[in-house]
Amino acid sequence: MKKIFLTLLVASAMLVACGPNREELVNQIQDFEDSVFESAIGADPEVADQLTKMYVDFADKYSNDTLAPEYLMKAGEVQSNVLHTQQAIELFDRVINNYPQFEDVPMCYFLKGNAYDLNCMYEQAKEAYQEYLNKYPTHFMAEQTRLMLPHVGQTPEEMFAEIIANANDSIIATNK
């Protein structure tokens, strides 16, 4: 009887030490996502870091799981949204380098540009967007990126003024 109790005790300790299984982790992440995205706390850097940690912990523990690159990409987006640009870039690069067959790798390249852009790092944003366009010229976001690229770093007013000036130049050239 002592042997069975000792075996159960050791097995229980091992389960607790190993932490939650895959399904439990996925459910925990989903519950946390639901609470974060239903409220304004999603913009809180501490909450963003907590959600990012959950995503990264899952990807570290289940690196061969199909959710791993998806969670890493989401972690990058979360970090980008709270202007933790370097962490976002590292997460996007991790997806690009470790999961080259992941269907959303092109978006990771685009999101790198967006992370830089959000943090007013315009030269890096232009380089990242250009890299995206070079690698994925026919991706569904490519045409919008081509149109936006010359305007990276401009205020909406500057962008509008430039568009109007170009339109006026086109009208004048057409009327000649």
So what's the oligomer here? single chain
Count of individual helical segments = 9
Shape: elongated
Q: Secondary-structure element sequence?
A: HHHHHHHHH
Radius of gyration: 23 Å
User: What is the distance, rounded to the nearest whole angstrom, between the alpha carbons of the first and last residues?
Assistant: 101 Å
Strand % is under 5%
Mean pLDDT: 84
Total strand segments: 0
- Helix/strand/pairing category: mainly alpha
Question: Biggest β-sheet, characterized?
Answer: none
The helix content, as a percent range, equals over 70%
- As residue ranges, the low-confidence spans are 1-17
Can you give keywords for this protein?
176 residues, single chain, mainly alpha
Describe this structure in words.
The protein has helices spanning 2-18, 22-37, 45-61, 67-81, 85-98, 105-118, 122-135, 142-148, 156-175. The model is unreliable at 1-17 (pLDDT under 50). The chain is 76% helix and 0% strand. It has nine helices and no strands.
